[in-house]
């Protein structure tokens, strides 16, 4: 075992000497490895960061959450013209499903209404995202109340003019979240009493944030826009009990809604059941494809880098032919020479890889500074992958030069070196 440490030490010294004595040649040869590792880890880090940001934006929702409505969140076999004829889910269907579907933890009726302007005295906040929902929304999505409370079942059913607003709206209109409680803000031509302020969240990846949102009882919005307005795109958000079988629950949910709508056995569903799990699977699929594409593109840089390492090692073998002959004449075995050059190739490649990782680290820091709340993540796993890949490139690139060095005849090697 000690002999291998000795070989490793000597190989490290030879690699460092190669860097010192032939700076330009070594730099140009390692450039391919550096660029390749930089490309691979940069792609992995960017995709991981994107995935983390997207998952963070939907982390408040349980993976079992279901969206029931006339729109599909993904590809569907239903022709577009036919899907456009599907009826909207209704408030009555929402109430029916709450009673009829077993293992249902919570269901919330929601309307997608246009953004609005909220006013308080002379102050105004434009483009406020409106959440027209029932009270169960609080149980489905993990909203965090910083001050006040969320509206209850009675307020939700009666559609009283109350609102829960985001932290940014509270600070703009009322100077602080505490001061907003009990105040009246004007929205859609009506005065809404602020009963709660959400905890500050920060902006999301695509600009959306609860900090600039207002949540109102859906029945108060229905009085303003009407119950049969096709432009509101209603959905029923449903969350099953924790231990419920998802597939069985979805099948039963479809059966109950089909019965409520009087659909015949030979008729297709005139609604879509969108599972959040399918959305997260889609995210995994997209990020996986991005990783593969990035690895393929980066592979070309590593191929060039591998040829660069091989070139260094062949030159190194030629320059040290005399030394190899002397080592062999003193009893060094072929295996000793082989490992010596293999270790040297791996060390050189790892040095190039470490430079690439350092560049990724610098770029990730700069990118995080210029992109606000979006944080680029350079995980320990990515660092390990970069190091292992660079070591593998060195190992593969150094095999042929190492074998050629190990097979040199000691007498011929000494004579050639002289």
From TrEMBL:
Keywords of the record: Cell membrane, Membrane, Transmembrane, Transmembrane helix
Intracellular or extracellular location(s): Cell membrane
Main location: membrane
Pfam families assigned: FtsX (PF02687), MacB_PCD (PF12704)
Domain ABC3 transporter permease C-terminal, first and last residues per copy: 296-410
Gene source species: Ulvibacter litoralis
InterPro entries for this protein: ABC3_permease_C, MacB_PCD, Macrolide_Exporter_MacB
Bilayer topology term: Multi-pass membrane protein
GO CC term, one of those recorded: plasma membrane
Membrane spanning residue stretches: 27-47, 292-315, 336-363, 383-405
Protein known as: Putative ABC transport system permease protein
An MF annotation (GO) of this entry: transmembrane transporter activity
Domain spans labelled MacB-like periplasmic core: 26-255
